[in-house]
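Supplementary Note 3. Input sequence used for the single-chain structure prediction.
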Amino acid sequence: MSGNAKIGSIEKLKEFRARMLLAKDSISAALCEASADIQRIKVWLSQEQKSYWQGVYRKRQEQFQLAKRNLANKKNETTMLGNRRSCIDEEKAYQKAKRLIEEAELKLKNIHRWSSIIDKEIYNYKSLVQPITNMTEDDIPKAAALLEAMVISLEKYADYYTDTTESVARNGQEEETPDNQPEQDGEQ
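The predicted structure, written as discrete structure tokens, is reproduced below.
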């Protein structure tokens, strides 16, 4: 076993640690942004769209009831001669109102269906992303702390080794040339 450790570059460890922490921040930001986007979509679908189409449904239901009454009134009307009046326009209005209310009902059913689907997908997404979240919140900070401790230990070792080597070199140099004593002013 060799007596000296071979330390390549402590600076590379420091650089790796810094990049790892930057990656952690980037990953965390991306996860937060994705979660915010998911929440926006969920709110848009389950609140905004739902309330919009509920309002549309109520209005269309009123229009449908009005068209239905108008059609019934027109069918019951007779001319002075006892003939029935034409109710083609009222029939068209009734059919249009009926189609519009069916569309609003379909939209509300789809919103309910898609809200259930998005809830399941959010649950699946969270379970898939949880390991990444754990890594960014727990593992990377622990690894960064471990790297920091390693860097400190290596720096202390390198300083100790450098001081010891310089001391041995100085001691060896002084022994080789014992007459290397500092000159005193005025003694020549």
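Helices lie at 10-76, 88-176. The first helix runs from residue 10 to 76.
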